Amino acid sequence: MTRREDLDRIREGLEQAAEAVRPFTPGDVAYDEKSSRGDPVTAADLAVNEVLHRILPEEGEGWLSEETRDSPDRLHKRRVWVVDPLDGTREFVDGIPEWCISIGLVEDGEPVAGGIYSPPVDLLVVGSVETGVTRNGETAGLTDRTSLEGARILASRSEWKRGEWDRYEGAGFTVKPCGSVAFKLAQVAAGMADGTWTLVPKHEWDVAAGAALVTAAGGTLLHADGSRPAWNQPDPKLPNFLAARAQLLAEFRREWVE
Q1: Same domain for 135 and 19
Q2: Distance CA 23, CA 248 (A)
Q3: What residues make up the domain containing 196?
């Protein structure tokens, strides 16, 4: 399996997933709550999950998805597909156009390829560490900003509503609330924003595809303590997640974390 073939499979998965979600109307869709936090899940999530599971993993490859019961079998696989069928389900339910389909490929414990498609805004970001990143078929990459002064940073809409970003008032960078974390990471990888971070836990399926894309674009991924995320772990929950050009993250950690 070549990386080009991996990317072809990712594109096919995103295309078929977009077709699977088309019959559902964002903002007018029934949902259930699948956790004590009230996280929503819809028939669209499950339909997309089924499509991606059919297209992506081949014999000998692992699978980790928000909408599939986890299995320890993946821990023994060299290649693992890590997906969120609909990242931003709450936005999907509320009719906010900030949700997406997210496909990541982790190989030997590192995110190496990914694709994120946002049907509401027709944004397709695909790439790998070997090939770089494209945005709707055109070569893309990080912005050239190397300082937080004047930077455009994407924030979790729910974190922003809870006041968790109030601490950065007057910090010199612009904060823009946005839904899905995968959608935010796609925008960073494609040069549509300078960075994004969250200081609350995320799961591997939330960020694996975006991590591959940001890395492919030349960006850096860190935890708030400066360590690098580990992937395909028995517990796929990450404590926090920072993504941007290395200089921006170093400045952020120096002035706002350490």
Answers
A1: yes
A2: 41
A3: 152-257
Judge contact between 165 and 158, C-beta under 8 A: no
DSSP letter for 245, please.
Answer: -
Structural domains of the chain, count: 2
Q: Are 171 and 243 found together in one domain?
A: yes
Same domain, 197 and 113: no
Pairing label, strands 195-198, 174-178: unpaired
| Per-residue pLDDT reduced to its tens digit, 173-211 | 999 999 999 999 999 999 999 999 999 999 999 999 999
Q: Are 111 and 231 in contact (CB under 8 A)?
A: yes
Asked if 85 and 45 touch (Cβ cutoff 8 Å), the reply is yes
Do 115 and 7 belong together in one domain?
A: yes
Residue 94, judged by CB atoms within 10 A of its CB (0-12, 13-18, 19+), counts as middle
| pTM summary value | 0.97
Residue 1 has pLDDT above 80, yes or no: no
Shared-domain flag, residues 91 and 183: no
211 and 127, same domain (yes or no): no
Say what the pLDDT of residue 175 is.
96
Sort strands 152-156 and 195-198 into parallel, antiparallel or unpaired.
parallel
Tokens of 70: 């986890």
Lowest mean per-residue pLDDT among 15-24, 37-46, 108-117, 138-147? 37-46
- Looking at the predicted structure, is the pLDDT value of residue 122 above 90? yes
**Pair (12, 116) in one structural domain:** yes
pLDDT at 38: 74
CATH code for the domain in which residue 122 is found: 3.30.540.10
d(CA 73, CA 4): 26
CA 52/CA 67 separation, integer angstroms: 11
